């Protein structure tokens, strides 16, 4: 019952992932490559290490530039590698 009410209110049972990152490439049409950095503890040495993932994000308006901080959200597959879309620009590159 609770699942049905959540679906009618617009809430997803399994919410889409949201990440923040920096645009590293805008060479493709309507696509931006966003580098997302995660800080994780090393399992053995307990030192904090940075892990960077590159996500291909859909940019409908082609207005992003390299260095912009953006928020991306998971979406259905848009191409072979593109699984994310840009929801908002947090900070423009100087």
Automatic annotation (TrEMBL):
SUPFAM superfamilies: Nucleic acid-binding proteins. The keyword Membrane does not apply. The keyword Electron transport does not apply. GO terms for biological process: translation. Residues 1-22 are annotated as: Disordered. Keywords: Ribonucleoprotein, Ribosomal protein, RNA-binding, rRNA-binding. GO terms for molecular function: rRNA binding; structural constituent of ribosome. GO terms for cellular component: cytosolic small ribosomal subunit. InterPro entries: NA-bd_OB-fold, Ribosomal_uS17, Ribosomal_uS17_bact/chlr, Ribosomal_uS17_CS. Residues 9-20 have a biased composition (Basic and acidic residues). HAMAP family: Ribosomal_uS17_B. PANTHER family: 40S RIBOSOMAL PROTEIN S11 FAMILY MEMBER, SMALL RIBOSOMAL SUBUNIT PROTEIN US17M. Belongs to the universal ribosomal protein uS17 family. This is Unannotated protein. It comes from freshwater metagenome.
